[in-house]
Amino acid sequence: xxxxxxxxxxxxxxxxxxxxxxxxxxxxxxxxxxxxxxxxxxxxxxxxxxxxxxxxxxxxxxxxxxxxxxxxxxxxxxxxxxxxxxxxxxxxxxxxxxxxxxxxxxxxxxxxxxxxxxxxxxxxxxxxxxxxxxxxxxxxxxxxxxxxxxxxxxxxxxxxxxxxxxxxxxxxxxxxxxxxxxxxxxxxxxxxxxxxxxxxxxxxxxxxxxxxxxxxxxxxxxxxxxxxxxxxxxxxxxxxxxxxxxxxxxxxxxxxxxxxxxxxx
Length: 265
Description:
The protein is low in regular secondary structure. 5% of the residues lie in helices and 0% in strands. The chain has one helix at 2-14. The radius of gyration is 20 Å and the shape is elongated.
């Protein structure tokens, strides 16, 4: 434990703690802007409300860390191991998060405009209400994630894996979805106006109520843009519960809302 405290003292005194052991450390609401935490071990660390604006956390271990309302604007989080991290209400504007492991992360209402998440793994993550406008998600694995009501305006999702993702009422207007895997995705009432879906796989996707005006690569009443027949919802998607977030870490959801079987042709 003495060694652990030395790392914390070093960080507070110099904002330098490359490779340091900060597991379980309580660093909430501190000003660590510009800190160098490359390769640091921050598993289970409490970083709630901490100012890490412009900090370098590349290659660090942040699995199950608490980062509620943390300021990570312009931070370098590339290649981090952050499985199950809690980033509720955190700010990650323009953050570099390429190649990061964010499997089962909590990103509810997280601000990620213009963030670079290319090649990142967000499989099974909760991104309800997240702001990803202009974000780079090229080649990202977002399979099974929940992006209900998320904003992905002009985002780059080319070749991203959105298989079985819940995208109800998400805003993909003007987004780049070329080559994206949208098999069995639930796009109920999603906004795809002006989106580029050239080469996207929509097999089994639910597009009930989706806005498709001006979309490219999918039939939306404008044959000159290329016709791709809309897939019929799978039997599993004809009655899909809307999962809403209750509180951080909670597994209680409202499953009382079911969708009508409308069938697309």
